[in-house]
Amino acid sequence: MTRSADGEPQPSGSLVRRTTAGGVATITLTDAPHRNALSLELTRELAAAVTAAASDESVGAIVVTADPPVFSAGGSLDDLLDPRAPLEEMYAGFEAIAAAPVPTIAAVGGPAIGAGVNVALACDVIVCSPSARFDPRFLDVGLHPGGGILWRLRERVSRQAAAAMVLCGDALDGEAAAACGLAWRCVPDEALVEAATSLARKAATRPRSLVCRTKQTLDASAAITDGTAAVALELEPQRRSMEDPIFLDRLQTLREKVRPGAVS
User: Fold this and answer.
1) Deepest of 7, 9, 149, 214, by most Cβ within 10 A of its Cβ?
2) May I ask the CATH class of domain 2-204?
3) 228-252 pLDDT, tens per residue?
4) How far apart (Å, rounded) are the C-alpha atoms in residues 111 and 174?
């Protein structure tokens, strides 16, 4: 039995590693010999690691990454040929990421193939490197896309881009992914994890309850179709935040920094 950086027990041979530092939990897929394929064991470990991190009140954000050279080769061929669990259970890893109340940032270096793209898309923000490759590839093996990938792709890019990637097999490298909005930023490979962690740290310095509530509102805003409804959706949570001692304390601190008569 080994231990992670935060002192938590980590079974030898684990397929997922979880460490915590500075309010950021980093969850790493570690089955590099099998290209981090989403076997039943790995997806269960991923779901457990994300759930544990999200339930830790000291964690303000989560980074999801993988040991190189492949981010994830997608579904395990063995589990696809001889399923040991219903499809829904095979989605547990990226569904746990999508359900996390705190911000999640994917650090994608190397190929993300098939359901491996789902893992990245489940995160709130994707940071990638030039070596990244986003390749859904479901249709190449005669498999209908699953796990919500079509919806998540349309949310990130557009119907046209989703069609090009899924129907026509047009994979994107890291720079192209950032250019079309699939990824937020493309950075050098050696700076990838630090760039993702830097974003996570910024989120983790903010009041956790407020960040979680804002993420809920952001997701709920997807159903809004006009400005009036958008104002109404944000009104009550903003009003509640104005009554929170954290807001009052931070506002007072800011006020004390402003010189008398200065315009802020």
Assistant:
1) 149
2) alpha beta
3) 999 999 999 999 999 988 888 888 8
4) 9
| Cα 38 to Cα 29: distance, rounded to the nearest angstrom | 9
> Do residues 76 and 38 lie in contact, with contact meaning Cβ atoms separated by under 8 Å?
yes
pTM of the model: 0.90
Q: Is 262 exposed, middle or buried (0-12, 13-18, 19+ CB in 10 A)?
A: exposed
pLDDT at position 52: 97
* Contact between residue 120 and residue 134 where contact means Cβ atoms under 8 Å apart: yes
DSSP state, 189?
Answer: G
User: Per DSSP, what are the bridge partners of residue 172?
Assistant: 134
Do residues 108 and 88 lie in contact, with contact meaning Cβ atoms separated by under 8 Å? no
pLDDT at 259: 59
| Three-state secondary structure of 100-166 | CCCCEEEEECCEEECHHHHHHHCCCEEEECCCCEEECCCHHHCCCCCCCHHHHHHHHCCHHHHHHHH
Residue 233 vs residues 103, 141, 213, 223: alpha-carbon distances, Å: 20, 43, 12, 10
Q: Which amino acid is at 248?
A: L
Of 264, 260, 262, nearest to 251 by C-alpha is 264
